[in-house]
């Protein structure tokens, strides 16, 4: 009975509601802080941080051999994270998946799962080590840069955060479901994030619009297309937003007049196998009726899903249905929630970067203090050693006459005022340190440390130096690991996004033989004297030459015709702007062309009006005329412009008004003039008819539309050229051999022909990349087939490869050509029949 009374006294009555509320709150905070949400400083959850630190302790760096994941998982469990091997291994696997992480933090060896949802192999089969970029997250962790705390059983210490020398939370993103809250931060491009971070360091007052000049938007590892910028702006401005992500799908026109949809990229976190199953179910349930087959041709080289469209179905309608009914279009709900000072907070883009910069400054300051302490401690020892060396005879005498080390150290302290640390170093000093060379090294080391100490003190005294170091280290990371953006951000109709913000101006578009295209202002090329050397027009790959150049408005459409007879279109402003000497961007990054496909002609199209025609001429002299309106289709996969015979390629395309005279010139100096109505209008996929009857080994080098009052400019590969009246080329019927345009045996083969006016400027481009701009009126008017005058001096066996015309500028006064220039003699312009 006494025991029962004693037990009753030990019972504490509590309010059940309050106890449950308190216990659940404690549990919630534990899940929020210690499991589900990332830290704003290093962007890691505790389990990820413990995995990386365990690998760091085990020496699993990128230069070492892989180690079984079972060993790593066991170490993490036993030392830091006693929450089950499955949770640890799942977290490790995600860090090694290239379709989950924008920049992988674990370098995995073995089966780590796939985008089809295949599970990874068991941890006894797989191996892993730290990736190179993960090393940057742990750099300087041994220099007191971060705090350490006891592990779960107080047997060792673990870092509360990693130094993380790049903004991992933005770069790799994070996803987590806590209690009552969740986070969903998309990954970003390393280079863009570091550029935005540096801009914020330079200008702490920068607004969101300024930051978004650098950080364009999320950059998913699985690529895809983000539709519009409204959701991105909302997410960056408030911490919450909805971003629509689409698969990259192209409608491909097959030769049998059927279409297929080729999918090469999927939205982030979409399971490809389940997507194919869902498409099959939709077809089976007849919710989508235009699909006849779905095939998955994906391999190690990339994703490739082919969706075959029925002959009577519209491919665009089917594609829109796929976007509506399947995960080919998903919504990524951004919720930028992270742990800040131990509390969960929803952060804007600027706040997130500010928190990271503040943390990096703290890392730099703590590291500097650590290095300062080490340097001062070493300097203190060196000063003692220097005293000992300067008084070495007396020091030796003290040591030899002392009965033990302790007595010797005490006597040295009394004699020279040294402390215990210095006397310990002196006692342990080897005899080799007594040589003159060693003494000199001692003095040099002390001098270097004194300079270092002053520099470290200066860093701690000036905040701007700390900021500069943070910026400098981030830029080094960018230089080592930054890559091109994977996810395209596409403008959406109705958004005040691109078109309204881009000024309407004239631009020069150029494209090289290797397919590099760029846009720049027309005033970049200044007028020079006829016969000059010109200026360098681009920074090229070896043997790359410019092959296309023309002037158009920034809001005009540009049609790109390829040697395969296909046509693609872009707005002029969609082509990246570059400097005069920049090589530009490869056209393959702007258009979905195949490996052997190259753009051979670019056409400016202000609008797709009826009554306009596109006249196309192939290298082998075949011509085809098609209404311009037939090409008014925004199909990313391109359209078939004409059907080609084997060995032929589409080389020249011109826009006409329906009654234009055309001039076709050849490499071996022939030319033919005929009216475009000699060629009946044909459908897009038609083959065409013969424009000129070519000699053996001859081919077409140019086609021009003729206009009243203009002249025909013929330029040879050797740099000579002339203007000839249009009447010199009598009207003929297409399909003939034409007239002699140039004597190639005497003056070289023809590089290009073009219709020009006297008030035009002519831009000539040579095979060595040199560009010259001259007024057309400075070129002598000569009868066909005269040699003409020298337009461009060529060196090192270079040749003229292409010409372009642009509006005349009055920037400079043009000097007269010297009278003794033999190249401009009158006899060169005598008419020859």
Short description:
This protein has 833 residues and is an alpha+beta fold. Helix content is 30%, strand content 25%.
Protein model, in words:
The chain starts with a helix and ends in a 26-residue tail after the last strand. With 833 residues, it is an alpha+beta fold. The radius of gyration is 37 Å and the shape is globular. The longest helix has 42 residues, at 349-390. The strands form 12 sheets. A 4-stranded mixed beta sheet has the order 14-9-8-17. A 4-stranded antiparallel beta sheet has the order 10-11-13-12, covered by helices on one side. A hairpin with a 3-residue loop joins strand 34 (711-716) and strand 35 (720-725). Helix 3 packs across helix 4 (69-79), helix 8 (190-202) packs across helix 13 and helix 15 crosses helix 16 (420-427).
Per CATH, the superfamily of the domain at 506-812 is DNA gyrase/topoisomerase IV, subunit A, C-terminal
Q: Which structural class fits the helix and strand makeup?
A: alpha+beta
CATH architecture of the domain at 506-812: 6 Propeller
The coarse silhouette is globular
- Unreliable stretches: 535-543, 812-827
Averaged pLDDT, please? Answer: 86
List the helices and strands and how they pair.
Blueprint: H1 2-10, H2 16-36, H3 46-57, E1 67-68, H4 69-79, H5 85-95, E2 106-109, E3 127-130, H6 132-138, E4 148-150, E5 157-159, H7 168-172, E6 174-177, E7 182-185, H8 190-202, H9 208-211, E8 225-227, H10 230-238, E9 240-246, E10 248-253, E11 259-265, H11 272-284, E12 291-296, E13 305-309, H12 315-325, E14 329-335, E15 337-340, E16 343-346, H13 349-390, H14 392-401, H15 405-416, H16 420-427, H17 436-461, H18 463-481, E17 488-490, E18 506-512, E19 516-521, E20 535-536, E21 546-553, E22 557-562, E23 566-571, E24 585-586, E25 599-605, E26 613-618, E27 622-627, E28 639-640, E29 650-656, E30 661-666, E31 670-675, E32 689-690, E33 700-706, E34 711-716, E35 720-725, E36 739-740, H19 744-747, E37 750-756, E38 760-766, E39 770-775, E40 789-790, E41 800-807
Parallel strand pairs: 8-17
Antiparallel strand pairs: 1-3, 2-3, 4-5, 6-7, 8-9, 9-14, 10-11, 11-13, 12-13, 15-16, 18-19, 18-21, 19-24, 20-39, 22-23, 22-25, 23-28, 26-27, 26-29, 27-32, 30-31, 30-33, 31-36, 34-35, 34-37, 35-40, 38-39, 38-41
Helix pairs in contact: 3-4, 4-5, 8-13, 8-18, 13-16, 13-17, 13-18, 14-15, 15-16, 17-18
